[in-house]
C-alpha cells in the first residue's frame, strides 16, 4: 500500500484498488470466518464477494467491481489457491488488468508488485538486477542486488502481476519458467537463491489482438491455467460496465457534471458492438468490420472525452457533437477503415439518429 499522507492520497489521479476500497476490504477481513490459504488476507469466498459485490453476513454492502461470468471468477480464485499461475486471456478491453488488480488487492492486500510487459522489457524486470555504483565499489553483495517485483513477491509471499506477458520477447518470458516450476530464483553471483514463501503466485494478462504479440512457449504455457475473459454478453451489460467506469473516473478527475450521459453511452456502445460483431444488434444487417477492436475500454475513453467537451466547452449536456470526433478516432485506425465507417454511417446511423448523422458528416 502506498505510504502517502491522506491529503496526497486523496489527490492522486488513480488510487490502487486496495486504497480505493480500503473500507470494504477492512469489513470483509473483520467478518471473514472462512478458511484462508496461507498468507491470504481473505478467504476465497470473501475474495469473490469483494470482486462481484453483494452483502457481508452482517449486511455491509460491497460494490460490484467486475462484470462478467461468476464461474470464471470462481475458476480464477481457485487457480490461485494451487501452485499454478493464472493467465487472464482475452481481447483488449475485457477487464483483464482490472480483475488482476482486484485479485491481488484482495489476496495479498496490495496490487503494486507489477511488471509491465513491452517489447523492451528485459529479463532483469522478471528476475533481478544490480546497482552498478555499489557493484563497482564493493562487488557482488546482497546490498547491490536490485530486487524485481517477482523477487519481492517470492520473498514476501505475495501475488505478483505481469501485464501484457505476450508483449515481452520470448526469451524474457521464459525467465518465468524456473520461477513458476521450481518456485525459486537462483542468484549465482551470490551463490544463493530466493525461495518463494507461501502465498506467492503470479497473475499474468495477455491478448492476441495487438501488434507485436509474441507467442508463449509450450513450456511456459504449461505453467499457467488459462482463464479466457469474454466480451460483455449483451448490450445492457456493456452499457452498465461503461457507465460505471465513466462515473468512477469522473469522480477521480473531478470532471464537471454532465446530463444525459447514459443516453450517449448507449449509442456509443451500440455502434461499437455492431462494428465489432459485424452485424446490427437486431441481427438483420451484416456489416463490414474495421481493424480496431472497439472494446469497452475504448468506449470508456470516448465517453470521458465527450464529457470533458460537454462540461468545459459545451452546454453541460452530453450531445452527439461532443463525442463524434472521438468515436471516429476510435473506429478509423487504418485507411481501409474509412470505407467501413462511411458505409456504416450512411446505411445505419442515418436511419437511426439524425443528430449523430449530422455530427459525423460535419467532421468530413
Identify the notable features of this structure and list them briefly.
single chain; 364 residues; alpha/beta; Rossmann fold; 2 domains; 5-stranded parallel β-sheet; two-stranded antiparallel ribbon; 11 strands; 49% helix
What is the global morphology? globular
What is the CATH architecture descriptor of the largest domain?
3-Layer(aba) Sandwich
Number of domains: 2
| Mean pLDDT across residues | 91
Task: Indicate the CATH class of the largest domain.
Answer: Alpha Beta
- Could you state the CATH homologous superfamily of the largest domain? P-loop containing nucleotide triphosphate hydrolases
Which range best describes the helical content: under 10%, 10-25%, 25-40%, 40-55%, 55-70% or over 70%? 40-55%
Low-confidence stretches: none
The percent range for strand residues is: 5-15%
What does this structure look like?
The protein is α/β, with parallel strands linked by helices and 364 residues long. Helix content is 49%, strand content 12%. It is built from 17 helices and eleven strands.
Amino acid at each position: 500500500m502506498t505510504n502517502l499522507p491522506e491529503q496526497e492520497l486523496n489527490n492522486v489521479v488513480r488510487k490502487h484498488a486496495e486504497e480505493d476500497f480500503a473500507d470494504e476490504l477492512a469489513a470483509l477481513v473483520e467478518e471473514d470466518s472462512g478458511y484462508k490459504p496461507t498468507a491470504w488476507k481473505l478467504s476465497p469466498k470473501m475474495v469473490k464477494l469483494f470482486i462481484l459485490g453483494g452483502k457481508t453476513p452482517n449486511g455491509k454492502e460491497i460494490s460490484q467491481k467486475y462484470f462478467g461470468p461468476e464461474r470464471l471468477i470462481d475458476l480464477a480464485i481457485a487457480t490461485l489457491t494451487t501452485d499454478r499461475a493464472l493467465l487472464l486471456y482475452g481481447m483488449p478491453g475485457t477487464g483483464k488488468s482490472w480483475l488482476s488488480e482486484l485479485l491481488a488487492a484482495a489476496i495479498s492486500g496490495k496490487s503494486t508488485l507489477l511488471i509491465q510487459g513491452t517489447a523492451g522489457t528485459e529479463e532483469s524486470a522478471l528476475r533481478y538486477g544490480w546497482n552498478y555504483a555499489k557493484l563497482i565499489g564493493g562487488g557482488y553483495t546482497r546490498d547491490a542486488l536490485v530486487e524485481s517485483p517477482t523477487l519481492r513477491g517470492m520473498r514476501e509471499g505475495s501475488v505478483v502481476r505481469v501485464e501484457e506477458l505476450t508483449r515481452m520477447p520470448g526469451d524474457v518470458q521464459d525467465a518465468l519458467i524456473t520461477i513458476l516450476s521450481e518456485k525459486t530464483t537462483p542468484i549465482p553471483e551470490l551463490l544463493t537463491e530466493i525461495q518463494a514463501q507461501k502465498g506467492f503466485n503470479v497473475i499474468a494478462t495477455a491478448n492476441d489482438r495487438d501488434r507485436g504479440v509474441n507467442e508463449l512457449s509450450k513450456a511456459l504455457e504449461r505453467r499457467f491455467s488459462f482463464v479466457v475473459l469474454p466480451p460483455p454478453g449483451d448490450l445492457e451489460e456493456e452499457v452498465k460496465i461503461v457507465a460505471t467506469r465513466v462515473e468512477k473516473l469522473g469522480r477521480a478527475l473531478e470532471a464537471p457534471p454532465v446530463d444525459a450521459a447514459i443516453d450517449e453511452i448507449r449509442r456509443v456502445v451500440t455502434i461499437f458492438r455492431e462494428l465489432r460483431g459485424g452485424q446490427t444488434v437486431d441481427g438483420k444487417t451484416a456489416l463490414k468490420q474495421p481493424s480496431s477492436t472497439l472494446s469497452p475500454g475504448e468506449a470508456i475513453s470516448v465517453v470521458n472525452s465527450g464529457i470533458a467537451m460537454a462540461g468545459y466547452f459545451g452546454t453541460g449536456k452530453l450531445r452527439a457533437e461532443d463525442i463524434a470526433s472521438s468515436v471516429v478516432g476510435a473506429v478509423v485506425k487504418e485507411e481501409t477503415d474509412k470505407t467501413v465507417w462511411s458505409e456504416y454511417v450512411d446505411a445505419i446511423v442515418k436511419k437511426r439518429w439524425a443528430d449523430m448523422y449530422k455530427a459525423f458528416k460535419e467532421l468530413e
